[in-house]
Amino acid sequence: MEKFTFVILCILLSGVQTTFGQHKTEIVIGSKFVIESNILDEERTCLISLPDSYNDSCLASKKYPVIILLDGYTHFKTASGIVHFMSSKRNRNNLMPESIIIAIENVDRERDFTVTKIKTKRPNTMGGGRSFLNFIENELIPYVDENYRTEPSRTLIGHSLGGLLTLNSYMDENSVFNAYISIDPSIWWSEEMMKNKVDSISSISLNKKLYIATANQGEANYERNKQRHDNLYTLITKRSEEPLNVEIKYFEKENHRSVPLIALYEGLMYINQEN
How far apart are CA 204 and CA 224, in angstroms? Predict the structure, then answer.
């Protein structure tokens, strides 16, 4: 509880301007850049948070892992505060390495986070998830690698439909990510497709780290949510006789909207622990 109190305090302080007498100091947790995507045929805005030590002249050659965060505008301040708390040398926690956070702002999340369409009465743009992952892997990450000091250790984090896309990326043997945090993923969107993907999942994917967080959406949604998550976890773990780097955790006291805060912390703890 003391750790989470500190995390929340860090988040609340983010972006606050403090004034002492006539002196004004801005507390800056990140910046913004825009990248032109040929794959998506549009501009995409990203928020970036650099580690405390990034601009330390004594560490000019140091490289950092990269975290790609979906629903970027929503989760950027939260994730930045948690990562800072877990990794900053000032806190001496050493729970994870200092990391560069790239948070992608949304344009059309139904289009970008789903790889299949479902029938609706209204026209929809669903099913563009593969193109969005191509944008991340073939345009955004190369841009970040070229402009910042990165190492080839990458984590993808998504919530809800973003969690569904994170699972799709995990099951892709060509994915450029090493670890995945899928927070209360919307498996109901394409349950049968997910089962089929698990049946054909490769050893490359099974050797990577995956953390799944499940929220309490009430008894009425038990089959729609928790049971689906548990079934998917069971299917994945049955694909190998060896222990896998896959964990699922149920947060009984958290709902779909509140679970990202604690799941980000717990997920980062899991994927950064020693095997």
Answer: 29
What pLDDT was estimated at residue 6?
47
Classify residue 126 by burial, with Cβ atoms within 10 Å: 0-12, 13-18, 19+: buried
The model carries a pTM of 0.89
Residues 52 and 50: their CA atoms lie apart, in Å, by: 7
> For 230-255, how does the pLDDT look when each residue is reduced to its tens digit (9 = 90+)?
999 999 999 988 889 999 999 999 99
Structure tokens at 22: 């006539």
Quick: pLDDT tens for 91-115: 788 899 999 999 999 999 999 999 9
Burial class (CB in 10 A: 0-12, 13-18, 19+), 41: exposed
Q: What's the token pair of residue 235?
A: 């299917």
**What CA dihedral angle connects 57, 272, 65 and 163, to 10 degrees?**
-140
Question: How many angstroms separate the CA atoms of 253 and 21, rounded?
Answer: 44
Which helix (H) or strand (E) segment is 59 a member of?
none
Residue for token pair 């900053």: 88
Q: For residue 153, which phi and psi values (nearest 5 degrees)?
A: -125, 110
Closest CA to 248 of 258, 260, 238, 234: 234
* pLDDT tens digits along 40-95: 999 999 999 999 999 999 999 999 999 999 999 999 999 999 999 999 887 788 89
Q: Which residues contact 217 (CB under 8 A, 6 or more apart)?
A: 224, 225, 226, 255, 256
**Residue 87, CB-side half-sphere exposure with 13 Å CA sphere:** 25
